[in-house]
From TrEMBL:
<dbReference type="InterPro" id="IPR010966">
    <property type="entry name" value="NqrB"/>
</dbReference>
<feature type="transmembrane region" description="Helical">
    <location>
        <begin position="317"/>
        <end position="335"/>
    </location>
</feature>
<keyword id="KW-0597">Phosphoprotein</keyword>
<feature type="transmembrane region" description="Helical">
    <location>
        <begin position="151"/>
        <end position="178"/>
    </location>
</feature>
<keyword id="KW-1003">Cell membrane</keyword>
<dbReference type="GO" id="GO:0022904">
    <property type="term" value="P:respiratory electron transport chain"/>
</dbReference>
<keyword id="KW-1133">Transmembrane helix</keyword>
<dbReference type="GO" id="GO:0010181">
    <property type="term" value="F:FMN binding"/>
</dbReference>
<dbReference type="GO" id="GO:0006814">
    <property type="term" value="P:sodium ion transport"/>
</dbReference>
<feature type="transmembrane region" description="Helical">
    <location>
        <begin position="285"/>
        <end position="305"/>
    </location>
</feature>
<dbReference type="InterPro" id="IPR004338">
    <property type="entry name" value="NqrB/RnfD"/>
</dbReference>
<comment type="subunit">
    <text>Composed of six subunits; NqrA, NqrB, NqrC, NqrD, NqrE and NqrF.</text>
</comment>
<keyword id="KW-0915">Sodium</keyword>
<dbReference type="Pfam" id="PF03116">
    <property type="entry name" value="NQR2_RnfD_RnfE"/>
</dbReference>
<keyword id="KW-1278">Translocase</keyword>
<feature type="transmembrane region" description="Helical">
    <location>
        <begin position="347"/>
        <end position="365"/>
    </location>
</feature>
<feature type="transmembrane region" description="Helical">
    <location>
        <begin position="185"/>
        <end position="204"/>
    </location>
</feature>
């Protein structure tokens, strides 16, 4: 006589469900197949506040040298026949120091640059803080310290003679459209400082891109090295990448004794602060390596196969490194952990795309020789796709390894 079929109890169903769940999780397991050994608990005091303080401190070398160089370039222009700018910033400087002359020393030059830059930064800081307070009150969220880094970066990449109302308008666009509309801190997929820069660059090109905007004097047109190369006023046809290192002009660009935005002139100061970012792991070296490698490879390709009449195509990668905002973008903007890729392999691809797009824009678009800013914004859009592709590749590889 056959035994009656026993109905499964609730306990049996629980264990059956548990077995099915374990098999399902095993099929989707994407972690390494090795057990963790040693200390498994990590205690770290890092937070948004400390991260922003580290970034701010790492920007100080480029900031202070930029203010000094701003005064230095104004002094050289005055010696060359220009006159001091007839602005309230110059009047403020004259209250503290004698008029800027060929004999002005280091302190006077630094103070002259500070009289122009400090109001520039304070305007950006107040505007950014105001919007952050408004949106944090609307959402009932805590006010994060990221606003002062956004304002700092934004003020460092703009020409110093940009009108303050344009600065405020551009930062307003960047904060609202590129950041707060998507949820605020940690939810933005575009760098707000670069989004604001792109907005005012295309909305007010004559105010931002004019060559006279970089030197705080009247009656002087100071073109950057990148601007001269874009208009074929500099030739690199017979210059190799290593030969550039013997050129005194290259070393002037490396140390920062050239015309440009406050935070972009000194590659040495930028690399110094960026190196600290890498050592503290606030910035990921994979992104920096990807940007640098992408720039070098693309520049070499154009050197060999690009049009010889285009000075930007013949420019060696050593010159690309020290011109424009490449170094600042590579060390401080491309490494933004919010807008960059998260997975390790994707970070290399993300950085390489930035380096490639930077050279491509510089060579093919003579009206926009500064390509690093738009290249980073373009790569921001691709960062989630790179992460998705890496995650899917990991899942497929590990499913195949386990025979599932």
């Amino acid at each position: 006589m056959s035994k009656p079929i026993k109905k499964p109890t609730a306990q049996d169903k629980y264990y059956q469900h548990g077995d099915s769940m374990r098999k399902y999780l095993r099929s989707l397991w994407i972690a390494h197949g090795r057990s963790t050994k040693g200390q498994v608990h990590v205690r770290d005091a890092i937070d948004v506040k400390r991260t922003m303080h580290i970034v701010g401190m790492c920007l100080l070398p480029a900031l202070f040298f930029g203010m000094y160089n701003l005064g230095l370039q104004a002094q050289l222009a005055i010696v060359d026949g220009a006159t001091a700018a007839d602005t309230w910033q110059t009047a403020l400087f004259n209250l503290l120091f004698p008029s800027l002359t060929a004999d002005s020393g280091f302190i006077s030059l630094l103070a002259y640059g500070a009289c122009f830059y400090v109001p520039f930064y304070l305007t950006a800081l107040i505007v950014n803080l105001a919007w952050e307070v408004i949106f944090s009150r609307m959402r009932g969220q805590e006010l994060h310290e990221g606003f002062f880094i956004t304002a700092l970066l934004f003020s460092l990449i703009l020409p110093i003679s940009t009108p303050l109302w344009i600065l405020a308008l551009g930062l307003t666009f960047g904060v609202i459209v590129a950041k707060e509309m998507f949820g605020g801190m940690g939810y933005n997929f575009l760098n707000p400082a670069l989004a604001g820069y792109a907005f005012i660059y295309f909305a007010y090109p004559t105010e931002v891109a004019a060559i006279g905007q970089f030197v705080a004097v009247d009656g002087y047109s100071g073109a950057t090295t990148l601007g001269l190369a874009a208009t074929n006023k500099l030739s690199f046809a017979d210059v190799s990448w290593i030969g550039a290192l013997s050129d005194p002009l290259w070393w002037d660009a490396f140390w920062g004794f050239t015309v440009g935005s406050v935070g972009e002139t000194s590659t040495f100061a930028i690399l110094l602060g960026g190196g600290i970012l890498l050592m503290t792991r606030v910035a990921d070296w994979r992104v920096v390596a990807g940007v640098f490698a992408g720039m070098v490879v693309t520049a070499i390709i154009f050197n060999y196969f690009g049009p010889a009449k285009n000075a930007m195509a013949t420019m060696p990668w050593t010159w690309h490194l020290v011109t424009g905002g490449f170094a600042l973008g590579m060390m401080f903007m491309a490494t933004d952990p919010v807008t960059a890729s998260y997975t390790r392999k994707a970070k290399f691809a993300y950085g390489a795309l930035i380096g490639f797009m930077t050279i491509l824009i510089r060579v093919l678009n003579v009206k926009l020789p500064e390509g690093i800013m738009l290249a980073i914004l373009f790569a921001n859009l691709w960062a989630p796709l790179f992460d998705y592709m890496v995650a899917r590749a990991n899942i497929k590889r590990r499913l195949k390894r386990h025979g599932l």
